[in-house]
Write a structure and sequence with these properties.
Length: 160
């Protein structure tokens, strides 16, 4: 006799988010204005060094007024750090913290779609406007699914 598993929206959304994230890594994610494009895995691996060098350049060569609006554009790459926390259950004990981090990650990802930029490594051009491609949208949807999974889990735990 076979038994059917009960539909688990939290688990299904988390698994769907993992699938979307893997797709985001293998699909083209970003196209710069010069026509060069990057796959998701390239953006993930090269993103941190670019953020590091861009932050040094911003502090060294940018006025305080420009720094206030350019500095938040460095944040979207850091949303990737939330994924290992979600899938390894490191924050299983502190669910409220996990929920708040998923919300923060989603908001940080939204920054990329509000002002999509790619930071360049040379000291004269700090960023170029980027066009999000299918991989970037899969990346954003993955974080939306993780947030919704945590939200449904939070709603379910509040009902009991």
């Amino acid at each position: 006799m076979t038994t059917l598993k009960r539909f688990n929206p939290t688990g299904n959304l988390s698994h769907f988010a993992a699938l979307l994230y893997v797709l985001a890594l293998i699909l083209p994610a970003i196209e710069r204005t010069d026509g060069e494009y990057f796959f998701g895995w390239q953006a993930l691996l090269l993103g941190l060094p670019h953020v590091f060098f861009a932050s040094i350049n911003l502090v060294s060569y940018t006025s305080a007024e420009d720094l206030l609006w350019l500095a938040p554009l460095l944040l979207p790459w850091f949303a990737n750090l939330y994924l290992p926390l979600h899938f390894t259950q490191i924050l299983h004990i502190k669910f409220k913290l996990k929920y708040n981090l998923s919300l923060a990650a989603l908001l940080i990802v939204a920054l990329f779609f509000i002002k999509p930029v790619v930071f360049d490594e040379d000291s004269l051009t700090f960023y170029s406007t980027a066009t999000p491609l299918i991989g970037a949208y899969c990346w954003g949807l993955a974080f939306l699914c993780l947030f919704l999974a945590n939200r449904s889990k939070r709603t379910h735990s509040n009902e009991h």
